[in-house]
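call fold target=Malto-oligosyltrehalose trehalohydrolase
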Amino acid sequence: MQFEVWAPQAGRVTLQCDGVTRALERDPERAGWWWGEAEARDGSRYGFALDDGPVLPDPRSRRQPDGPDGLSAVVEHERYAWRVPWQGRPLPGAVLYELHVGTYTPEGTLDAAAARLGHLAELGVTHVELMPLTPFPGTHGWGYEGVSLWAVHEPYGGPEALKRFVDRAHELGLGVVLDVVHNHFGPSGNYLPVFGPYLTDTHHTPWGAAVNLDAPGSDEVRAFLTGSALAWLRDYRLDGLRLDAVHALVDTRALHFLEELSTAVDALAAEVERPLFLVAESDLNDPRLITARGEGGLGLHAQWNDDFHHALHTVLTGEAQGYYADFARASLGGLAKTLTGGYFHDGSYSSFRERHHGRALDRNRVAGHRLLGYSQTHDQVGNRAQGDRLSALLSPGLLACAATLVLTAPFTPMLFMGEEWAAGTPWQFFTDHTDPELADAVRRGRRREFAAHGWKEEDVPDPQDPATRDRSCLDWSEPEREPHARMLDWYRRLLALRHEQPDLTDPDLADTKVAYDEERRWLAFRRGDVLVAVNLAREPAELPLGVPHARVLAAWEPVETPGADGVVRLPGESGVVLLQE
């Protein structure tokens, strides 16, 4: 078997494989690369030593059986016998479900999560979006401090378990999306800087030195990131990738890394003959991210739309702190703006940033499905001091209104695990750092962050306490009892309508027409023949929407068919979906 590694600054590189050490040779055709052959098989342990240094794991390791600090293991992907032929599921018309493997079940493994996928197929989602799976020290964590970008966290089950998970998902007709982190590497167990200039001091990020996308040596770093992305899609038959915080990818080159990546993914999709897509997390409000490359964009297929979340969150909760301030002032008008234009900050002044922010979408060039809409995500729940979900803040009626808006809006909907039954469990920030100094620094930093906002130290959960993770696990007895069962039925009904009514998956943002009454706290919008209305006030409301005799498709509380006057009489804190044929 051939082994290779990029180590441009090394004077000597040796390979240790199954206890046997041998020197590698410089590759005459690729500067900085070393290669050699050794007898190995699936599971063989190996690592590289540079000059007189210790044996380290392979930067392109496919498996880390003993964690980030241990030796790498050979993975022969072709040994796995895929059970399910899979033609893929495209992004248009999709409904995503964000899932953290470590808390989706108490067991916290891929196999345990796979056993619960039937619930998602019955719910009506189309794709499972897994939070990051790359190895990190310890057992439990969010996954955003991972290293070994080609490997699967061993406590979750390793590479074979991921393949079994994907096979089971595909068997149920579900696509699988993986969250990948290219903007930084974890602080513990990361040996990449020993091998080469994977980081650069040319730019700085919230995590320190930036990933090297444009300084000397960046060609190989970009190839490293692109190669890992393609490996997930090819070797594990994934359907898409979610790219974490792309606004932190600092790249001054004429050909931006994201354009290079989207080109490579589109080429792989053509090769494997199934749709593949990239979804970016970005706070830039820059439509070039999701504009086709042929039209001057970067060619990503979609992005998270935090503006819709913020507008929805503020009208539901009344919260107005931090970046919520502008949205709270705009209230229902801000929510209406996102429903028709995608972005709220489209060149407008952002008081949080103290500058103008964003750029308007061209609704004739950018389809609505390229924006993901949601009321909750791992960030928006877990980054609260106590990890409280909307179910801890709102009445069942307002939760139903949130679901109504998310699942009928002109965006690709995304749910956060457990929201479909108004889970009573929190989802808190938890870590399992094995380095005591790092663990203490994270604990103190978390508490210091919230102390600045008035929180008492004892009220902020200790990320390193195993109980913090345990509290965050879903309680699978909840969906079978009230009030959770009723909420689950509402989500199922709305998702069924989304699949039944073509107007609800129409990608034309410009076709969405919105009306609202700020004082009476109701909002309605029309998409083709489908009309959606929510009443956020406690009192009943009469909505003069001009839809005589419209048929009620779904209602949280009983709603009469509108009469000849076309007025919709809606109970307090409730939502309705009607059809005006």
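return ok
Residues 125 and 423 are 17 Å apart (CA to CA). The chain has a mean pLDDT of 96.
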